[in-house]
Every structure is written in structure tokens, then in C-alpha cells.
Specification:
heterodimer; A: 371 residues; alpha/beta; abc type-2 transporter like fold; 2 domains; 4-stranded mixed β-sheet; 14 helices; 6% strand; elongated; B: 247 residues; 6-stranded mixed β-sheet; 4-stranded antiparallel β-sheet; 9 helices; 10 strands; globular
């Protein structure tokens, strides 16, 4: 009986061009576009320069900022009003003001000031702009000092030299950070959305009622829905991993086996969510809204776009109750760090728990007979 | 005669609305039982309770010897059901639908293959076996739907307005199929709005506002209401409902 039902699902799926398109196109498009577009690295910060000093040093600072690659000198202002207007209009994000007598004070008094004003509507961008310009200015500062100060053989002030090294994603490649997460997103979509819509469609057209009047058991009906989408999910993942390799040159440092093992369990959990959504929806519109809501919650709290560590405590607990956050972490760890199954055991059991819980709710909630 | 459906005060309410109001009637093995009533009289609700799709709010009923309250899954193995809405899979072929529903009722492969051939032959569908059901004309779909509902040779089949929107020739063919099924011993429980079809039934019940207003053979009903045909019987009974609703 189950075999006949699964065969039916496959026949229907392969006759529905939109499912096939979704299965093939979604991983490719998402993987190529999202990591490229959703880039948090801030470049092209527009600045206005208001230089009252016009000295060698002030020019050096301005040139260095322009050459850094982060800043575009959009405007050379001649008055504070002009600079402020540019900031107000949003043509520039940062105003660098170098006061008169800057060079002279720096040389004579050993101390000079530079004013930075940032448009903090986009806080991340403003913070980074401040950060970058601070780094550049202190670098210039160092060089100037070296011109004047004769260092003694032994530094009178002990200094701690910090040597930093970034592991696992050494060149800060944002795409390498995003791509594994996008793969996780893909599986939730196949699992919850596609499966939910498929079930609800049967309710809409009335075939569900026909099934309910036959001896088919609830778990058989749901299992017949689960298995084909589980396979589709794994196919999508395979396509996604291929795209990762071909487009970004990204392959897991850990083993593919670990990825698939986790994906298999994670997909069952997502499919459980889809079935729960379906059991609460009368029609496809409702199902779309419900699954959209779940997707938003799961994705925003998954650590895909924002780091879970920097969330408030309550949100961190919510993230623990979110299967997507576990799987996003698994994907990143296996792909970038080369973690193996044992490193991620706790995630595995969490995902198994979600899979069992969601599917149990779905089966218990599926009523062949209306109450 | 053996009773295949027995109901005692079967009731279904939706909130404050009573869709089926304490109906009591019996259906005998092998008869064609017409279940008539205006739209909204409660026919489909009653039928859903009897076929295990809807839990009753009160009263009791047994269908094919099983209690509808507690043994609805046992009932489902023994009955066929053809709903008001067309409910075969339109994106599967004729043969795929036959195989699917045959397998669901536990028919063995060889048995199923043989039955499918007989069925296609009878319906003169042999050339359409690989046609998607969605591409068939409505009348053909309904005939196929009935044949699929009878595939596992149920003792009792529920047909909810099986000939709605179907042309007169196909309607005639459809009733020939119903007779053939009844002849083989199946009990047919059928709702319809066509009064000529009511004349074909062994016994007819007419529901008005959730209650059974009349139940007898078409012959006796016409005598009872002093009516020339079933259409008149129906109009006389349905008029009481309309008068009560205040139209």
C-alpha cells in the first residue's frame, strides 16, 4: 500500500514542471545570488573631506584613506555647512574634518585632533567607517612618529606585540561563510514549504477526503508524502554542493558523509514542520502564510545572517529550540572547520529529537475523521 | 432482510446549527437507497458520518456491522465512496488511478491487473488507459470514479450526487452501472437532485431541514402525497421547509 502511495507521489511530482524547476533552479540561483549580494563587508563608504590645514600631513591622511579601497572621496568641502549638507543629503556617510594648524600642533605639541562625523542611520556601516578610518589614521600617525623619534635600542616602554591569525576562513571570505548556511535554508524550503503545499493541495481539490474514506492509515499517507520530498531535498543538497564547488571552489573540509548524515535527519525534521503546517491549513494561501512565518522565525533566529552569540539571552534559548540554527552550525563547521560527527554529536541528537517530535505531532494531528 | 445501515437518532451539530437532527432509518442489504433533499438539508453531512469522515454529535449508527463512533476504520475497508467533488487524481492516468486505489484496498497485483483490464473493457476505456484523468470529459470521469469506488467489491457504496452536471446519455449509462452493481449484491446509497433518478431507487428518503420527512418506495410515496411523480412529492415536502425559513 505504501509503495503504491509513494509511486503516486513521484508520478505527480514528475508531471509537475514547477516542482522540478524549483528543485533544480532554487539551489543554483540562491547559492549564486545570496552570498554575493548579502555581503556584510562594507566597501565604498562615501566621505567628504574638510581640510582647514592643507599641509603635507593632512594630505597624507586624505590620500591614504582614498587609497584604502574602503572610502570614496566624494566631496572636498570648503565650509562646515557644505560638509554638513552632504551628510544631511546622504551623499556622504562620513565627514573627515582636519582643523587648521593640524600639522604644526602635531609636530610641536605632540598632539593634534581630527574630527570624524558619521551618518549612523546604518549603524553597522557607521561603526565600520569609524573603525577603518581610525586604523588608517593611527597608521599614518605611527609613520609620522617614526620620522621624528629616534627609537632607543631598547624601548623604554614595554610593548606587547599582538600577532593575529584567522582560522578556518583565513581570507574572511564572506561567501564561504554564507554558502553553507544557504544550503541549510534550501533544505528547510523543500521540507516545510513544498511538502506543506503539496498536502494542502490535496485537501483543496478533495482527493484528501477520498483518501480519508479508504483504509489508508494516517502515518502511511504522511510517510508517502515525506519520502519523496526527503529524496528531493537530498538531490537539491547535492546540486547545491556541486554549485558550491564549481562556483566558489568551496568543498567541505570535513566529509560529505557527515553532511549527508545530518541533512537526512534535518530534512525529516523540516518535513515534520511542513506536515504540521499542513494540518493547520485549510488551503494553500494559509499554508503559504504559515510556512512563511515559520521560515522567517527559523531563518532569522538561525544564526545564518546574525551571530547567535550576540543575541540576547532569551533569543539564544529560542535559537536552541530551532532546528535550523543547529543545522546551519553543522554545515559551517563541517564545510569550513572540517568538524566530524563526534565534534557535532550534540547537534545530531538535537536534530533527531526535533525530527521525532515534529513528526509525532504531525501524525497525531492528522485526523482521518473530522471531530 | 438484513440491515446494512442502522441509525438511531443520529445527530450532528456545528456550533448552534443542527445539520442532521436525530435521524433514524435502516438500509437493507442489496437495495438501491435514494437519499434525497434540497441543498443544505443535511444529506452530505449524514453521508459523511455514515462513511466515517465525520464524527457524530449524538445518536448511534452501525454500518456494515460496525459502530460509526468507534469502528470507523473497520467500516472504511468494506465501503466504497464517491464524493460530490471529483476525487480521483487528475494528474495521474486512468490506469495509475486504478492501480493506486486497488492497492490501497489491498488487491493483489495479478488480481488488480486482471480487474483493471475488465474495467477498462467495460468502460470502453482501453485506448484511454494512459490518458491523464484530468483530460477526460466529465461524464467519463464520473463513470471511472464509480468503477474505481467499486474496484474492491464493497458491500456498500455511497454516491454523493454522482450524476451532477452529466449529460442524459451518460446518466442513463451510469444508472445501468448502478443496477449492475446492485445486481451483484452491492447496496447502493445514492443522493441525487434528479427526480427521474429517484424513481429508479428501491426506496427513497427525503430529508428536510436535517430530518427525514418521508421514507418509502417511490410508488408508496406518490400515493401518500397524491402526486403524479417524485418531482411533485419532493416539491410538496421541500415547500414546507421554504415556508418555515420564511422565504
Amino acid at each position: 500500500m505504501l509503495r503504491a502511495l509513494i509511486k503516486k507521489e513521484f508520478s505527480q511530482i514528475f508531471r509537475n514542471p514547477s516542482i522540478i524547476r524549483m528543485m533544480l533552479a532554487a539551489p543554483i540561483i540562491q547559492l549564486i545570488i545570496i552570498p554575493l549580494a548579502a555581503d556584510f563587508e562594507v566597501k565604498n563608504i562615501n566621505i567628504a573631506v574638510l581640510d582647514w590645514d592643507h599641509s603635507t600631513y593632512s594630505e597624507k591622511i586624505v590620500n591614504r584613506m582614498g587609497a584604502s579601497g574602503y572610502f570614496v572621496i566624494k566631496e572636498v568641502a570648503h565650509s562646515p555647512e557644505e560638509a554638513q549638507a552632504a551628510l544631511d543629503h546622504g551623499t556622504v556617510d562620513l565627514v573627515v574634518e582636519i582643523p587648521a594648524r593640524f600639522e604644526r600642533e602635531l609636530v610641536r605639541e605632540d598632539e593634534a585632533k581630527i574630527f570624524l562625523r558619521a551618518d549612523a542611520v546604518n549603524g553597522v556601516k557607521a561603526g565600520l567607517a569609524m573603525n577603518y578610518s581610525g586604523q588608517i589614521i593611527s597608521q599614518v600617525n605611527q609613520e609620522i612618529r617614526q620620522d621624528f623619534v629616534q627609537f632607543p635600542r631598547f624601548s623604554p616602554v614595554p610593548t606587547i606585540d599582538i600577532s593575529t591569525r584567522f582560522w578556518y576562513n583565513p581570507d574572511f571570505n564572506y561567501r564561504h561563510y554564507m554558502a553553507p548556511g544557504i544550503l541549510a535554508l534550501l533544505l528547510v524550503m523543500v521540507g516545510s514549504m513544498m511538502c506543506a503545499l503539496n498536502i494542502v493541495r490535496e485537501r483543496e481539490i478533495g482527493t484528501m477526503e477520498q483518501m480519508n474514506v479508504t483504509p489508508v492509515k494516517s502515518y502511511q499517507f504522511l510517510l508517502a508524502k515525506l519520502i519523496p520530498f526527503w529524496i528531493i531535498g537530498l538531490v537539491s543538497l547535492t546540486i547545491g554542493l556541486t554549485v558550491c564547488y564549481l562556483v566558489f571552489g568551496l568543498y567541505p573540509l570535513g566529509s560529505y558523509l557527515t553532511i549527508y548524515l545530518f541533512a537526512m535527519v534535518f530534512l525529516i525534521a523540516s518535513l515534520g514542520i511542513g506536515q504540521i503546517v499542513a494540518s493547520f491549513s485549510e488551503n494553500q494561501q494559509q499554508a503559504t502564510l504559515f510556512s512563511f512565518f515559520f521560515m522567517m522565525m527559523f531563518v532569522l533566529l538561525s544564526g545564518l545572517y546574525t551571530s547567535i552569540e550576540s543575541m540576547p539571552d532569551w533569543a539564544r534559548y529560542l535559537a536552541l529550540a530551532n532546528p535550523v540554527s543547529h543545522f546551519v552550525d553543522v554545515m559551517r563547521s563541517v564545510m569550513l572547520k572540517g568538524s566530524n560527527f563526534y565534534d557535532l554529536q550534540h547537534r545530531f541528537w538535537a536534530l533527531v529529537g526535533f525530527a521525532v517530535l515534529f513528526n509525532a505531532i504531525a501524525v497525531l494531528n492528522y485526523r482521518k475523521r473530522a471531530g | 432482510m438484513k440491515k446494512i445501515i442502522e441509525t438511531q437518532g443520529l445527530t450532528r451539530t456545528f456550533g448552534a446549527f443542527t445539520a442532521v437532527d436525530a435521524i433514524s432509518f435502516d438500509v437493507y442489504e442489496g437495495e438501491i437507497f435514494g437519499f434525497l433533499g434540497a441543498n443544505g438539508a443535511g444529506k452530505t453531512t449524514a453521508m459523511k458520518m455514515l462513511s466515517g469522515l465525520l464524527a457524530p454529535s449524538g445518536g448511534s449508527a452501525t454500518v456494515v456491522g460496525f459502530d460509526v463512533k468507534t469502528q470507523s476504520e473497520d467500516i472504511k475497508k468494506q465501503i466504497g465512496y464517491m464524493s460530490q467533488r471529483f476525487s480521483l487524481y487528475e494528474d495521474l492516468t486512468v490506469l495509475e488511478n486504478i492501480h493506486l486505489f486497488g492497492s490501497i484496498y489491498g488487491l493483489k497485483k495479478a488480481e488488480l491487473a486482471q480487474k483493471a483490464e475488465v474495467l477498462l473493457e467495460q468502460l470502453e476505456f482501453t485506448d484511454q488507459r494512459n490518458t491523464l484523468v484530468g483530460d477526460l470529459p466529465l461524464g467519463w470521469k464520473q463513470k471511472l470514479s464509480f468503477s474505481v469506488a467499486m474496484l474492491h467489491e464493497p458491500r456498500l457504496v455511497f454516491l454523493d450526487e454522482p450524476t451532477g452536471g452529466v449529460d442524459p446519455i451518460t446518466r442513463r449509462q451510469f444508472w445501468e452501472m448502478i443496477y449492475a452493481a446492485a445486481h451483484k449484491g452491492a447496496t447502493v446509497f445514492v443522493t441525487t437532485h434528479y427526480m427521474d433518478e429517484a424513481e429508479y431507487c428501491d426506496r427513497v428518503s427525503i430529508m428536510v431541514d436535517g430530518k427525514i420527512a418521508a421514507l418509502d418506495t417511490p410508488h408508496n410515496l406518490k400515493r401518500q402525497f397524491n402526486a403524479p411523480d417524485m418531482n411533485d412529492v419532493f416539491l410538496q415536502l421541500a415547500a414546507t421547509s421554504v415556508a418555515r425559513a420564511g422565504f
